[in-house]
Amino acid sequence: MMRRIADVALVLITGGVDLAFWYGDRELIDGGMMPLWVVPMVAAGLCAALLMRQRFPLGVWMVVWLYTGVNLVVPKYYPFAYLLVAAYTVASRAPGSTARLVLVASALPLGLFSFRTAQSSPSGAQLRDFAGAVGTWAVILLIAWGLGRLAHIREEHARAERERLAAEAERALAAQRLRLAHELHDSVTGAVAGMILYAGAARALAADADPRVREALEVIEGAGGRAMTELHSMLGLLRSSEPAGAVAARFADVEGLLESARSAGLRVRSEVVGTARPLAPEADLAAYRTVQESLTNATKYAGPGATVILGIAWREASLDLTVRSAGGSAPPAAPALSSGNGLRGLRERLDALGGELTCGPDGDGWCVHATLPASETTIEVS
Fold first, then answer.
1. Whole-number average pLDDT of the chain
2. Phi first, then psi: what are they for 159, rounded to 5°?
């Protein structure tokens, strides 16, 4: 905002200097008179053009350069303040070759003006006056142009520094992700793999046991397999530069979560309102995690026999998810299973996306409600 105010102030000062050096002299080179309103009107137009010089530096400079030709028709009008500002802007934003060409071209009308001014001097002083005028304008133009080049160099250095810092941050982030991938592989992945192996071995040894025992072991083995798949996907993501949306878990796969919950003894049904639409990768993963965490909590706290209703409502620009659970008999050790981080992490994830998560008692059960942003393009969900 302050930069824009300074820009407008510079343009207004330029217009003021231009009009101040005009003195209101309207005499044309052929002895005629120019209408009084012409110079102020054109000056206003040039000021408006200068306000666009940051976006179109070369185009604005060309307009101003052509306008300096007015001095050939109105000898007592010196519209060179605009030219200096335009030359400064080109020098500060254009490549070196373009800036040098603009410097030479800007010197032409100033040199022509100096020559015409020297012609009106006494015959013995014409060369001296011409050299003095050319030298003065050359110094003024070089100062304006040089300040522009200095600003350009400083901006290039600042841009190079920003790119260097960004590259360093990216390298540090990549190293951190790689360390995290190693830790996950060495600890969590090994533990999950062991759980799957032990569950499979126990299921084989329990061939003659209660069918419910074998079913529970199958659920453990299946859940471990899915966890291992997601872990491998996350490890691949951490070792690459892909966005977070590359994780395999997607909301379109939510039916697999419902089947796992049913295998764990929950009575689960879903209610869908509206037409499914694609979600941004981050929102897609967040929706999947919301249902996953809600069903996990229902399994831990409500226990087998609980009724769980998943509500999926596609609104005009959002996706509403509601998971209600009631009934069932929680296992005695359920409280010890909670770390308290699941819902907290979900809330943080949704807040970052501009969504919202609320949860709390609902009658004799529990309710989790989440709202996520959704796009408007429809897709077909298999």
1. 81
2. -65, -45
Confidence of residue 162 (pLDDT cuts 50, 70, 90): very high
2: number of Cβ within 10 Å: 6
Instruction: Report the top-level CATH class of 251-330+338-373.
Output: alpha beta
pLDDT tens per residue, range 66-83: 888 776 666 677 778 888
Q: Domain locations in the chain?
A: 1-242, 251-330+338-373
- Entry pTM: 0.51
Q: pLDDT for 190-246, tens place per residue?
A: 777 778 777 778 877 777 777 778 777 777 877 777 777 777 777 777 776 555 444
